[in-house]
Design a protein that fits this description.
It contains 19 helices and 13 strands. It has 541 residues and is of the alpha+beta class. Among the domains are: 250 residues, no CATH class; 68 residues, no CATH class; 53 residues, no CATH class.
């Protein structure tokens, strides 16, 4: 039905479709068609889910102290979480990431041959310095590898790594560059927008961190705040602050934070299960009867025990507790020469109980919680718990393939940013003191710091479920020209130059002592030899 309507602005009549009225006496309201995200937002699922929309930095600042305290408590009192952190540190850090110096030869004025010699000298001196605690650690207790392990575990607990680079002269140390690990909880969690202070990190107009505001405790003045610049005027790093997060975030937070509730649920489930089992163990037997309690207990005693009970004037409770005391005093209870048969009265029932699980779903639910915690820490279930039952070769290989990129990512984004500034500060001192030569001297190094200090940090190789099958695949890819020797060495956690140098030394030694080459003949590849090897004879054949 069409009804006329007046357009006030144009002064002419137009036809507008009138809504169809609902039938008389009907309470049905026709739903309005909609198309939108979460259009059922008022239902049971989304009705009470109204999180506030804030910046990542505000969320971190509000939850940092509580999340850090709970994570540290879990790492100290929960065996599963502590073991998972140890496993994650072993996978990511291992014995420590190794330096592979990769300077830009063209920018610093080196030929390839000179650069190769320079890299070997740098790596050798770094190895000597980083493995001597008195040289590298301000406190003289850790090597750089041990610092990486401690820094990673601290990152798991707090989401941050904090360290300072100190210039310290010591009679017992040849170098003056020292590293000191610090707790990131020392950074004040305070924000002042007017002075560009965000949770203790002061930035410039571009958002570049220029200093941190930290707190320390003095034995005379108590707790004090002080500010430390990130770098000196020559660009030398003074403070190392590593974290990951969303855009605009200035502080980190523990990666276990999303699993804190799950870890707490696991503890509560384990405690509730243990309490239920203990209750069932303590109350090992029950008697159902309409008779008085004393008469019921008297039915459990032998004739001689009842006679002694009447002579002594005691009660059935006394006799029962005396038997229990005898048991706990490691004295056997007399159950008769051929065993005792408890004769109860009519309508009495004696029932013995054994400990049982309070719920049959305990194991499945507990495994589900462990899987969620393992996933949050970047581990497979088998790696986190040590339970590899039921795993197949394909499943284990796929699990490693899924998790190993997380390990590589953490090496690149967490551990490498921690050791790279240490390497830069150490190399600057080595060049400034003349221990390591550099084209153009110290002044040219300051102009080309980024090119001179470019490096790669390699860790333990990727876990392999079957070494033979992986070696076959690497050989096929190498023969196809897809992989190089360096690619294969990287997968094994080796430096190809070190491998070639060691092989050359071994070849010279074999020639000196007249030993044959220990390699496959060129006419038959390793894969062909393996494939053509005779099958082992069956047992008993």
């Amino acid at each position: 039905m069409r009804v006329p309507s007046i357009n006030a602005r144009r002064g002419r009549a137009v036809n507008v479709a009138a809504p169809v009225p609902a039938p008389a006496g009907s309470d049905i309201v026709a739903p309005t068609p909609r198309s939108a995200y979460m259009r059922d937002g008022r239902g049971v699922t989304f009705g009470g889910w109204r999180p506030s929309l804030r910046t990542a930095q505000d969320d971190v600042a509000a939850a940092f102290e509580a999340a850090t305290a709970r994570t540290i408590d879990l790492s100290q009192n929960n065996g599963w979480v502590s073991g998972m952190i140890e496993q994650a540190a072993a996978n990511t850090v291992g014995l420590g990431l190794r330096l592979r110096a990769q300077p830009e030869n063209d920018l610093i004025g080196m030929s390839e041959a000179d650069a190769q010699v320079w890299r070997k000298l740098v790596e050798a001196r770094w190895q000597l310095w980083s493995n001597t605690p008195l040289e590298c650690d301000l406190e003289g207790t850790r090597t750089i590898g041990q610092m990486q392990d401690a820094a990673f575990k601290h990152w798991v607990a707090t989401g941050e790594i904090l360290a300072e680079l100190v210039w310290r002269r010591r009679p017992i140390s040849a170098s003056r560059t020292k590293v000191r690990l610090l707790s990131s909880t020392r950074i004040v969690n305070r924000t002042d927008q007017f002075s560009r202070l965000h949770s203790g990190i002061r930035v410039n107009a571009d958002g570049l961190p220029i200093s941190i505001v930290s707190k320390r405790t003095s034995p005379h003045l108590g707790e004090q705040e002080f500010e430390v610049p990130m770098r000196d005027r020559f660009g030398r790093p003074l403070v190392i602050h590593v974290f990951t997060g969303a855009p605009g975030q200035r502080r980190g937070i523990s990666p276990i934070t999303p699993a804190l509730k799950v870890a707490r649920q696991f503890d509560q489930l384990a405690d509730a299960t243990l309490v239920a089992s203990l209750i069932q163990t303590i109350f090992a037997a029950s008697i159902t009867a309409d008779m008085p309690t004393e008469d019921t207990l008297r039915g459990l005693l032998s004739q001689s025990e009842q006679a002694r009970l009447l002579a002594g004037g005691g009660s059935p409770f006394d006799a029962w507790f005396e038997a229990q005391a005898g048991w706990y005093d490691a004295h056997p209870i007399d159950v008769g020469y051929n065993g005792r048969i408890a004769h109860l009265f009519n309508d009495q029932k004696l029932e013995f109980h054994s400990p049982e699980q309070p719920t049959s779903a305990y194991k499945d639910f507990s495994l589900h919680l462990l899987r969620e915690m393992a996933r949050c820490l970047g581990l497979t279930y088998g790696s986190a718990t040590g339970d590899h039952s039921g795993e197949t070769y394909t499943g284990a290989r796929m699990g490693v393939a899924d998790i190993y990129p997380i390990t590589r990512q953490r090496r690149k984004n967490i551990i490498s940013p921690f050791v790279q500034p240490i390497y830069e500060a150490w190399l600057e001192e080595e060049i400034a003191t003349g221990m390591i030569p550099f084209p153009g001297g110290y002044s040219n190094f300051l102009l080309n710091r980024a090119a001179a200090t470019r490096a790669a940090w390699t860790g333990e190789p990727k876990p392999i479920a079957d070494d033979l099958k992986s070696a076959k695949a690497a050989e096929v890819y190498r023969n196809m020209g897809v992989l190089s020797d360096q690619d294969i060495a990287d997968d094994l956690g080796r430096d190809i130059e070190d491998v070639y140098a060691q092989r050359a030394r071994e070849a010279a030694l074999r020639e000196k002592y007249g030993l044959p080459e220990n390699c496959y003949p060129a006419a038959l590849s390793a894969t062909e030899q393996i494939e053509e090897a005779p099958e082992p004879a069956p047992a008993g054949g």
